[in-house]
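Practice problem. Given the sequence and the SMILES for adenosine monophosphate, write out the predicted structure.
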Amino acid sequence: MNILVCVKRVPATGGTIVLTADSQDIDTRFLGFTISPHEECAVEEAVRIVEAQGGSATVLTLGPDVASEQLRDAMAIGIDNAVLLQTDGSDWDAYATAGAITDAIRTLETEAGAFDLILFGNEAADTGDFQVGIRVATALGRPVVSGIKGITAAGGQVEARREAAGGGWEVFDLAMPAVLGVKEGLNLPRYPSVPGRLRARKKEIRTIVPTRRAGGPAKDRLRLPEGTESQVEVIGQGPGAAPAIVELFQKLGVLGR
Amino acid sequence: MSILVLVEHAEGRPDRLSLEALTVAGSLREPVEAVVIGRWSTELAGGLSGRGIGVVHVVDDPRLAAFAPAARAAAVVQLAAARSASTILAAGSDRGNEVMAHVGAKLDLPMAANVTEVLGGDPLRLVRQRWAGSLLEEATLDAPTKLLTIAPHAVAAADPAPGAAPAVETFSPDLTENDLRVAVARRLEPDRSGVSLADARVVVGGGRGVGSSEAFAELEELAGLLGAAVGVSRVVTSQGWRPHSMQIGQTGMRIAPDLYIACGISGAIQHIVGARAAKRILAINTDAEAPIMSVADYAVIGDLHQVVPAISAEVRRVTGR
Ligand SMILES: Cc1cc2nc3c(=O)[nH]c(=O)nc-3n(C[C@H](O)[C@H](O)[C@H](O)COP(=O)(O)OP(=O)(O)OC[C@H]3O[C@@H](n4cnc5c(N)ncnc54)[C@H](O)[C@@H]3O)c2cc1C
Ligand SMILES: Nc1ncnc2c1ncn2[C@@H]1O[C@H](COP(=O)(O)O)[C@@H](O)[C@H]1O
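Answer key:
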């Protein structure tokens, strides 16, 4: 099977978000970068399917040159090929991103045949638009479903499972070629090995310069939500605090009876 | 011109998040119409009365009985065209976001997900969530039809006003094979038991500070005594100490307990965003400077391996459990 996985480079924010002075971006001067846990699971799933069934797995990102770091991370755990849709680092909204990814898939498939499966994260970690995968699938005329936490692909069909609102699972059957939006919990991603990292460093990355479609929403500025900070009351130090904690439980009415 | 709201429902009752979306729609000074997919009932009519809806369009098509995202979107797109809707709104639920993304793809128009505030104007100014709500984006949407989902709990659902039930009309969409090819084919029963994390009144959370799979026994003992559920941070699931179904946060569960006891959890924004609806947070951490202290209400500074068993022992002593 041939599989494509789309990932997005995002800052690894920790305890607080700090914005740039013009409120246009997160201040990333002191931050590392990563991809969404949903996308990590997509990468792992692609590697597992190819390990089990043969074929090849490709990772694709739209972003600046430095986003090749995220492509190499994916190659370090076993992805075969990488494609960078190179930008100048400015924002691309979900509408423009989906258009560029669709164009790139058409190019890649003309050269080397269709991807049986295209995996997206359910939503990007930063912008959380919940739509790029669905737009790409619609443009390509392929079946798509979101929120997937279980995949069985065999014989031209993929069974995709997701958690139902009231508990239990909803199961979908899609004929391949198909597109899935996946969520963390799909699998437990492996850590890259040192030889894997070394191999990934030497691999080639295919670069394509995408065309940007206008028409998406425009970001005016970012701001932090208000009123999330609290005043913490330190009840005590170490196990000696236990009686005071149980008194607190009583006061809050969580001790039952 | 009108605003069309996609109303999700179960067992004859409108979904709370859809009522929130109707509340936002009601603030926009245009006639509000609703679309309901599935069986219409007097109960549902009752649940939608006094919500400012002029007309409810009922799409009761047997082909839509199983959830089919693209087919639902096709019905919404056709109805919006028939009613010349200026705006289509849905809840920012999993299904709401999915169906509205299909609507956006079919119309080739932008869609703003998880909007917290609609400021108005044309082009439309709005505020939406990034990073699952840890960050807000002010944005402008310029499109002939505005497509939005409303972030869960961004507004409280307005109480119903006394008044007549909305007029009801039926709508029959044209659905293609392509729209219907992805639908729920089967359901599998839940494989979980015990106190559900989503509904628990008390949640005992464990992070990297717990240190091992085995050491979770300390947290489980306290949870058992309090009738609480156990939740975890992403480090715990990545280590394989506990399954992902127990993860709280941006890519896990949202919890809303009366009390969240966070043990050995640093308080990364992606974790805290899943516990924002907790009424109170008690942090147990060796580090008095951990970020969790800026969102916690109470704290014990100390080693959780000593503090948690001591609390359990004290609960036993006081309650005789
Ligand atoms: C896009 C994205 C999505 C994410 N989604 C999630 C998510 O859904 N949920 C989630 O949890 N994380 C998520 N993360 C990861 C998140 O950023 C943090 O890495 C993670 O929450 C940290 O887990 P932790 O607090 O257990 O570990 P750490 O940050 O390592 O903190 C451990 C804490 O334990 C304390 N400690 C250590 N030993 C003891 C002891 N003996 N007694 C008491 N305290 C002790 C330390 O002082 C420290 O504060 C996401 C990250 C990204 C980038
Ligand atoms: N810049 C990008 N490059 C590659 N894939 C992307 C990009 N942006 C979004 N995606 C993919 O689309 C998914 C959904 O993104 P979104 O619709 O923006 O929430 C992500 O999880 C990625 O798999």
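Check your answer against the key. Chain B has a mean pLDDT of 96.
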